[in-house]
């Protein structure tokens, strides 16, 4: 049960966003820019970064929904599952492995990112923008994970739920897949 009264039918971050839609809009806009906007990293790769960070933070809802979106984009659920726990053993590019290491270090604490981590990413062809966006995705998802879990939101058990939401997000983005706004404290 959530720590505050949230719309009961909306799991994960969707409940708090419906509760306070004026904060949902900028959060969704940031997520759309980082995960869906123009980039030299594919949407699937960026979703994989969000998934990996959410798994490191043990946020069940975020790692499952973003994992579903990553799998939808990449066409490979097994790859996403492996990358969550063992990115170095997963069949990923050297660049993506290096970026996931930066994301992992960022999730642990920003000062854990080392010049060696950055050099490794650059050696594998990562640009400054890709490194920047990886750090920002990781930092944002630390916030999102704490938002979801700090309010004790619920997460569905059915993988079909996440696959269906992933298809909506892939088509409409995050802002377009946001639930209708509910008045703060309402249970609708």
Protein traits:
disordered C terminus, 9 helices, mainly alpha, AhpD-like, 188 residues
Provide the CATH topology. Answer: AhpD-like
Q: What is the overall silhouette?
A: globular
Rounded to the nearest angstrom, the distance between the terminal CA atoms is 16 Å
Q: Biggest sheet, open or closed, and with what strands and sense?
A: none
In CATH, the architecture is Up-down Bundle
What is the count of distinct domains?
1
Oligomer: single chain
Mean pLDDT across residues:
93
Spell out the CATH superfamily: AhpD-like
What portion of the residues fall into strands of 2 or more residues?
A: under 5%
Using only CA atoms, what is the Rg? 16 Å
| Computed structural class | mainly alpha
Number of helices: 9
Stretches with pLDDT under 50, minimum 5 residues: 180-188
Helix and strand element order: HHHHHHHHH
Q: Can you put this structure into words, describing what you see?
A:
The protein is mainly alpha-helical and 188 residues long. It has one domain (14-36, 43-174): Up-down Bundle (AhpD-like), CATH 1.20.1290.10. Helix content is 66%, strand content 0%. The longest helix is centred in the last third of the chain and has 23 residues, at 128-150.
Question: Helices, strands, pairings?
Answer:
Elements: H1 14-19, H2 21-36, H3 43-56, H4 60-74, H5 77-85, H6 94-108, H7 115-123, H8 128-150, H9 159-176
Helix pairs in contact: 2-9, 3-4, 3-5, 3-6, 3-8, 4-5, 4-9, 6-7, 6-8
């Amino acid at each position: 049960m959530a720590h505050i009264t949230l719309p009961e039918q909306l799991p994960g971050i969707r409940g708090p966003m419906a509760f306070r839609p004026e904060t949902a809009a900028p959060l969704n806009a940031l997520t759309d820019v980082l995960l869906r906007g123009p980039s030299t990293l594919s949407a699937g790769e960026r979703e994989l970064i969000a998934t990996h960070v959410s798994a490191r933070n043990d946020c069940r809802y975020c790692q499952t929904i973003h994992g579903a979106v990553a799998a939808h984009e990449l066409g490979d659920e097994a790859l996403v599952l492996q990358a969550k726990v063992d990115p170095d053993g997963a069949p990923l590019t050297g660049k993506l492995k290096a970026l996931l290491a930066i994301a992992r270090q960022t999730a642990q604490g920003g000062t854990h990112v080392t010049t060696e981590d950055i050099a490794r990413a650059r050696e594998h062809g990562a640009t400054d923008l890709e490194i920047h966006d990886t750090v920002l995705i990781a930092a944002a998802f630390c916030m999102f994970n704490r938002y979801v879990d700090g309010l004790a939101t619920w997460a569905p058990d059915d993988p079909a739920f996440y696959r269906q939401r992933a298809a909506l997000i892939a088509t409409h983005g995050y802002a377009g897949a946001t639930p209708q706004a509910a008045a703060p404290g309402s249970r609708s």
